Q: What sequence folds into this?
């Protein structure tokens, strides 16, 4: 059982318990942490009735979590896992801000590189960025299906007011919380580089898997899309370096493709969103690269193309062409 | 009734009577021309039983055409409309070459800009290039559904041995054949520019309508894909100009977008091919731009992206990702 610094059971809230939040929140709950999900009504109803059923690579188990359907559910939490879709960052940050306990630590478990800045701008909350590696889905309300990995990298940005915190630092406390629950959680001294390492892979893999409705592994192995992914990563890395991010001195394209291969037959959240007719996070991925590239004078035509195509598909089937007419 | 220079009924064969070949061949047959389709067995069986049913914007009528299922069907033709998919150019050209009557005129009714060169390289046949504007489909064997336009532009290339032919020139004879059947057919003195004008619109519209399964009109009106189409056209025009094509001195991107808008709710042949799980002509469209751009040192990243995505989707559903696993 994970205990906090006062020796009592830690209290955690998950703001936006979708697949990612439910997996990590569920892992904490299973280790004895007191966890409250703020989540959609259907997921909450199912969990209240039967608990959260975790179907993971290593165990199948029901765990107990509390559920709330509005932001006041964060009120007693020492730690808040912030895992709403990036579309909802501002609304969700503003919603929880008035309810946060003094000293509560908010961790952003989200794709993208500007979430912490957006959370701060919207609400003043000073969140810790986390890089999330997990393949998980909610096949039905109340159920989490885990199919790969499940680890975190966290860290405060170099300029953060927390960079010089006394021991235990807030990142150290978060890492202890997760490692106590069997979730690998590394504290990085270059979290920006870690966020961008995942970001460039997402920019390459997410739109392609979404457009072709295929897996990361297939997209990375197919010769044509492998070369396309390489171009996406090269453009994105150019934007990162121009932004001052100290990326590791490796072939980032090769590293990104290897990472996509490790995700194997899993598909992306963007692919799932498109398949379900939901809005995607593409504006935080390739859309961000295009906007930031424009600010920095870096050409990003391939990111532009992928972003435009995903937006077009996202806008849905209702305007689609009539099948009868073909104009060569 | 259209007659040939000897005063008898003209004889036409259509090599590859898909939607385009069936529309133009059907129009000729309706005007009294003797037309033979070389086509797939199912289409041939249906036409032999009940004729070709033409459901057009201006009439619905059964017309009589003969059918053959192998290339010897061209043997008596004075004119051969060559309208196989660009994937099959070499095989089809080699197949008809030994059967062509002396003086037979072959007209390539195909998308792309290098068909005449490919036909010549494969078979020695000196075909006339045609730019085809028609929205047509074969909803079921034996039936052609016409939903927009229906005109041709033909012309011999500047360096062609036929450029100085005495009257009636071969292009003049082809134009007379079609106009006699009520099909507008212009003879151009800059056919390369006309081929490329259609080509750049196809490069912009076909992959996007295929990937998003939407119409030309929607793709051209949607702000994101409109901008994407503009970028495709700009890259493609740069390749055309570097190839020495004398394009008209207009904003080709604006012209291409307007052209896409005129096609309205029609979708592309590429979109239809993908929807039916068939191979597309994308290697002759964006694939050609990428290859030619590489030869000329012109960057074509957006064409590259669209080509790679269509190829990936074309390779089919059998390797698609499992829906259960999402890796954010």
A:
């Amino acid at each position: 059982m994970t205990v906090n610094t006062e020796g009592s059971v830690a209290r955690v809230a998950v703001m936006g318990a979708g697949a990612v939040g439910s997996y990590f929140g569920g892992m904490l709950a299973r280790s004895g942490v007191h966890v409250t999900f703020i989540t959609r009504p259907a997921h909450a109803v199912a969990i209240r009735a039967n608990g959260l059923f975790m179907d993971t690579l290593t165990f199948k188990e029901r765990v107990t979590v509390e559920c709330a359907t509005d932001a006041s559910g964060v009120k007693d939490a020492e730690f808040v896992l912030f895992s709403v879709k990036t579309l909802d960052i501002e609304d969700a940050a503003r919603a929880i801000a008035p309810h946060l306990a003094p000293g509560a630590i908010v961790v952003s478990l989200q794709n993208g590189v500007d979430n912490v800045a957006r959370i701060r701008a919207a609400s003043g909350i000073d969140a810790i960025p986390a890089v999330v590696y997990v393949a998980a889905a909610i096949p039905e309300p109340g159920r989490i299906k885990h199919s790969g990995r499940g680890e975190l990298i966290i860290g405060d940005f170099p300029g953060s007011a927390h960079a010089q915190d006394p021991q235990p630092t807030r990142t150290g406390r978060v890492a202890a919380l997760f490692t106590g629950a069997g979730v690998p959680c590394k504290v990085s001294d270059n979290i920006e580089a870690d966020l961008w390492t995942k970001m460039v892979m997402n920019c390459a893999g997410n739109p392609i898997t979404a457009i072709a409705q295929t897996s990361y592994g297939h997209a990375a192995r197919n010769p044509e899309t492998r070369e396309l992914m390489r171009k996406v990563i090269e453009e994105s890395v150019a934007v990162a370096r121009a932004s001052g991010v100290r990326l590791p001195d490796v072939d980032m394209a090769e590293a990104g493709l290897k990472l996509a291969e490790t995700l194997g037959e899993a598909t992306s959240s963007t692919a799932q969103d498109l398949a379900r007719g939901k809005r995607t996070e593409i504006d935080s991925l390739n859309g961000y690269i295009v906007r930031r590239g424009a600010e920095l004078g870096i050409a990003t035509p391939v990111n532009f193309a992928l972003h435009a195509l995903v937006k077009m598909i996202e806008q849905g089937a209702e305007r689609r062409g009539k099948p009868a007419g073909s104009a060569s």
Summary: DSSP finds twelve helices and ten strands in chain A.
